[in-house]
Design brief:
Elements (H helix, E strand, L loop, with lengths): L10 H12 L4 H8 L3 H10 L2 H10 L1 H15 L3 H11 L35 H5 L14
Helix pairs in contact: 1-2, 1-4, 5-6
Length: about 140
């Protein structure tokens, strides 16, 4: 093709692009399959802004197809798939796999706060490691 002449996307190229986008291809992948440059695609989109929306919808088709597979398996009685879906889509209805973490006999575990050290505190690191345990043994002297 002569230099400076813009490439035209014909019907065949458009079909290849749309097929690729409907399978979740990136712009680069779709352009490779259609044997065009990304700049050709972007120039086409500037001239045909409605194609940008169509491209987005086509790229979303893979998600839609995945949802169809999930719904089909749920309709066929797949309890594991149904639970998976409920845990993700019906959390606000009590289908969340939340776990409460507590200490012995339900006692709150609390938390330990470690403040950030500034440059003046970095020299005291070794002395802070030599703190004693509840039993009175030095951490460094434990067997």
């Amino acid at each position: 093709m002569p230099a400076g002449r813009p490439a035209i996307i014909d019907e065949n190229t458009l079909q290849i692009l749309e097929g690729a986008f409907s399978n979740g291809a990136t712009d680069l992948e779709a352009c490779f399959l259609a044997k065009i440059s990304k700049s050709t695609l972007y120039n086409y989109q500037e001239i045909n802004p409605e194609f940008v929306e169509r491209k987005k919808a086509l790229k979303d088709m893979v998600k839609y197809q995945a949802k169809q597979v999930i719904v089909k398996s749920i309709k066929e009685g797949d309890k594991q798939q149904a639970n998976w879906w409920l845990e993700r889509k019906a959390k606000d209805e009590g289908f969340s796999p939340r776990q409460e973490v507590s200490g012995p006999e339900g006692v709150d575990l609390g938390f330990i706060y470690y403040p950030k050290k500034d440059d003046s505190q970095k020299d005291t690191t070794k002395s802070s490691l030599e703190t004693t345990s509840e039993a009175g043994d030095s951490i460094d002297n434990r067997s």
